[in-house]
Design goal:
Its EC number is 2.1.1.222, 2.1.1.64. By secondary structure, this protein is α/β, with parallel strands linked by helices. The protein has helices at residues 6-14, 27-44, 60-67, 79-92, 103-109, 129-139, 155-168, 185-194, and strands at 50-54, 71-76, 96-100, 114-120, 140-151, 197-208, 213-217, 223-230. An eight-stranded mixed β-sheet has the order 3-2-1-4-5-8-6-7. Strand 2, helix 4 and strand 3 form a beta-alpha-beta unit.
């Protein structure tokens, strides 16, 4: 629990009952989920593979990966979110193993046991993001892939991700993000290299407020994903 912010856990716990409401505060996650899922599967071909979803929340991505045939384990430290994730399995019929365990603890328990590891929109919510990266690297098998998504730190990301998304467009609840915790791609790439991961792709995700759609592309100035491979 040392690498967890109690305030952040409580923030998501208060919203846990809304995880699967596509018109709630989690609407952006529902809308970008197909893009993330396609990106992960295109680079890792997850069908039949053991996949770990770190910071799984209510299980939106976890269930989607299970739907593609992956053997998914989802971990989180927010009790209420995990309860919602487990309950939703009764409705969806998907097979996902959910556990309340810190990623560092699981890395000591099951090193090299996963073909792929995903950690989406979590690094900017923990005290030691580099520690999470290192733990993810330990959990993936040699030759396996690790995927991270987070927010860049620059004036444009402050304008779009905080002022725009939280205060103008109301896409997210106010206070969802702390700009000081945003992470530059160069910083994340360095943490990956330090952990023995080779970055082989960096892709941006953009939001068009005119047609209210998300898309993947080369613009990493706000949201971005990094794909790595363990040596």
């Amino acid at each position: 629990m040392s690498n967890a912010d109690p305030i952040e856990l409580e923030k998501f716990s208060q919203l846990a009952h809304k995880w699967w409401d596509p018109n709630s505060e989690f609407k952006p996650l529902h809308e970008i989920n197909p893009l993330r899922l396609g990106y992960i599967d295109r680079l890792a071909s997850i069908s039949g593979k053991a996949v770990l979803d770190v910071g799984c929340g209510g299980g939106i991505l976890s269930e989607s990966m299970a739907g593609l045939g992956a053997r998914v384990t989802g971990i989180d430290l927010a009790d209420k979110s995990l309860q919602v994730a487990k309950l939703h399995l009764l409705e969806s019929g998907k097979q996902v193993e959910y556990r309340k365990v810190a990623v560092e603890e699981l890395a000591a328990e099951r090193p090299g046991q996963f073909d792929a590891v995903t950690c989406m929109e979590m690094l900017e919510h923990v005290p030691d993001p580099a520690g999470v990266v290192a733990a993810c690297a330990k959990l993936v098998r040699p030759g396996g892939q690790v995927f991270f998504s987070t927010l860049n730190r620059n004036p444009k990301s402050y304008l779009f991700a905080i002022l725009g998304a939280e205060y103008i467009l109301n896409l997210l609840p106010r206070g969802t993000h702390d700009f000081a915790k945003f992470i530059k791609p160069s910083e994340l790439a360095q943490w990956c290299r330090n952990a023995g991961l080779n970055v082989f792709d960096v892709t941006g995700m953009s939001y068009n407020p005119m047609n209210k759609t998300y898309s993947l592309g080369h613009d990493t100035s706000v949201n971005y994903m990094i794909a790595c491979r363990r040596d």
